[in-house]
Amino acid sequence: MRHTSLCRGLAAVLVLAICSLICAAAVRAAPPIPYSPWGTVTINGALATDWVIVEARIGGVTYATTHTTGGGWYALDVVGDDPDSPQKDGGVPGDTVLFYVAGYLASPSSTWASGAKARLDLTVSIPGWIPPVTPTPTATPAPTPTATPQTVTLLGRVSLQARPTPPAIPWVVALRVQVGNATYTTWTDTSGRFVLLDVPGGPQQITVKNAHTISNRIASIVLLPGPNDLDLGTLWEGDANDDDVVDITDFSILRLVFATTDGRADFNQDGIVDILDFSLLRSNFAKHGPLLLRVSR
Q1: Rounded distance, CA 276 to CA 13, Å?
Q2: CATH: 2.60.40.1120, 1.10.8.10, 3.90.550.10, 3.40.630.10. Which one for 36-124?
Q3: pLDDT, position 250
Q4: Structural contact between residues 38 and 76, judged by C-beta atoms closer than 8 angstroms
Q5: In what side-by-side order are the strands of the sheet with 216-223?
Q6: What's the pTM?
Q7: For 265-277, what is each residue's pLDDT tens digit?
Q8: How much is the mean pLDDT over the chain?
Q9: Can you tell me the distance from the alpha carbon of 92 to that of 71, in angstroms, rounded to the nearest whole number?
């Protein structure tokens, strides 16, 4: 009887110890709550148009990205640093958060705080900023003779996510490039560069997309006679069905073709659909194009 009681006592202690370890592990595994600033974006004294990229950076590293919506509004979730991870992968209390609008430093800055939600209206000055304009109906004038539009050469380049250091084969991708009303299909080289000949010159809107990325757009730029060297930004991966949005449909495709060589969901083009491709989709989930870029030549 005494032996039985002792065994029961030891079993109870063991159960409590296991429960304590499980609880401690759960506490360690709990992810930090993001810091969530939101508000309006004003560029050169006017509210931002839709699709202007807004980034939150800590120590020069981007930890959250979004784009403006109607009325110049933005909202970000700046992730926190996971204490169980050896590298810094987010903010910690007291970190300074800097905000960039279309790649330009905005004001004010902020301080990272776990779980905080704060309104923070951003202002930024961007030299030569030309926002997209919505055309308004006008009377059609009588036709007048016009000169034949001049064609120019476009020397474009894009950056691709989760690729080895270029030059490398995974940088060779097919692109759809729209210049004004003309659409071109081309391929990049092993460094993400491409060339288009005889594209229309003058004021143009340029949009670029790969079949499994969302699109980037330069809303207004003047293409000059001769070669025009343009950086068309980073193409965000995860659009498995090529509808310009990363959503649950793309996740369903990835799950269906996981562990195969199906190119629709092989976002980093390493020849296999695996956890790396899932990570790209997850990091870009809910993004949709076209994302507006600042002009960079």
Answers
A1: 43
A2: 2.60.40.1120
A3: 95
A4: yes
A5: 182-187, 174-179, 202-209, 216-223, 291-292
A6: 0.52
A7: 999 999 999 999 9
A8: 84
A9: 31
